[in-house]
Amino acid sequence: MKPLAEKPSPPKRPEFERAAAAPANFGDAARPLSFWERLWNNGAFRKTVILLVLILAWEGYGRYMAAHGNVLSFPTFTATVQALYSGILSGVIPQRLFVTLQVLVIGYAIGIFLAAVVTTIAVSTRIGTDFLSIMTAMFNPLPAIALLPVALLWFGLGTPSLVFVIVNSVLWAVSLNAHTGFLAVSETLRMAGQTFGLRGLRYVLQILIPAAFPAILAGLKIGWAFAWRTLIAAELVFGVSSGRGGLGWFIFENRNMLDTASVFAGLLTVMAVGLFVEGIIFRGIEKRTVRRWGMQRG
Fold first, then answer.
1. What is the rounded distance in angstroms from the CA atom of residue 121 to the CA atom of residue 126?
2. What is the enclosing helix (H) or strand (E) of 118?
3. 30: Cβ contacts below 8 Å, ≥ 6 apart
4. Separation between Cα atoms, residue 224 and residue 170, nearest integer Å
5. What is the SS3 assignment for 108?
6. pLDDT attached to residue 249
7. What's the DSSP call for residue 109?
8. What does the alpha-carbon distance between residue 65 and residue 76 come to, in Å, rounded to a whole number?
9. What pLDDT, in 10s, does the model give residues 16-40?
């Protein structure tokens, strides 16, 4: 027998010691922000700056038009605020605003309820999905104010006609967004809920609705915007004849009297309500839901 060949020994590497290098001076890695940097990182401050710039541009253009003898077409911001203050002090604007918000809440609530019913049927049955697809394709692109002549024929002048056009503006936008959100819920999340024994209403409330809530909330915001502008437009059309005028009626009346500052005061009230609902109500809902759940970036 041939002797076994000896295995070659692994190579020996020379040993050496390396002196530690002096630590590099990178400066302060956690430098505190300056006052202006912290201020600029505040979203409310940035929005305030934007509003101030718009106000200054408004005031400057209004003064420019007044200097050229055209006072009626574009009032200054100062004149608009004075007209707004007078309208609030006299109680006219609060009373008109209350009437408008009352009709809005009724129509918006009915629209959300019907959207919940339609969406439930759509996610439960195929015929419901087909129905929602056809109806949203027909009515969602249709301006709700275009249905106002039909509403006048069916319900006459008054609140029912306004509620009808508001419901149409809310229903399809909310239904479409909610249905899209439910369809986007992942199968993994659905199976996880079923694994924990969630069935029926608990499965919908604890799994489907939280997962689809970003889309549902987006639909609610879109539906609110559609309802608000549709209501103001509808009041502009026949608010004078309805017997109970809102902000649209206020704008219409002052337009007939050529009181442009009061017209802009009414428009400013409409925008202020929009800023309040968007910046306070919906932003508060977002902070307590989708942002708290990590589903939306701040």
1. 9
2. helix 92-124
3. none
4. 7
5. helix
6. 83
7. H
8. 9
9. 777 777 666 656 556 677 777 787 8
Q: What is the pTM of this model?
A: 0.77
CB atoms within 10 A of CB 17: 5
Please name the residue that has the structure tokens 């649209």. 248
Instruction: State how far the Cα of 210 lies from the Cα of 239, in Å rounded to an integer.
Output: 40
Tell the residue number behind the tokens 């819920």, with chain if given.
Answer: 185
How far apart are alpha carbons 292 and 210 in whole angstroms? 12
- What are the distances in angstroms from CA 159 to CA 95, 239, 285? 16, 10, 29
- Tell me phi and psi for residue 59, to 5 degrees: -65, -40
Burial 18-56 (b: 16+ CB within 10 A, else e): eeeeeeeeeeeeeeeeeeeeeeeeeeeeeeeeeeeeeee
- Between vectors from CA 100 to CA 95 and to CA 105, what angle results, nearest 5°? 125
| Domains in the chain: ranges and CATH | 94-288 (1.10.3720.10)
Q: How many CB atoms lie under 10 A from the CB of residue 265?
A: 27
Provide DSSP, 53-90. Answer: HHHHHHHHHHHHHHHTT-TTTS--HHHHHHHHHHHHHH
Q: Which residue has the tokens 């989708």?
A: 290
Task: Map residue 131 onto helix, strand or coil.
Answer: helix
pLDDT score of 111? 93
* Average pLDDT of the chain to the nearest whole number: 82
Neighbours of 100 (CB within 10 A): 26
Query: 102 with 247: CB under 8 angstroms?
Result: no
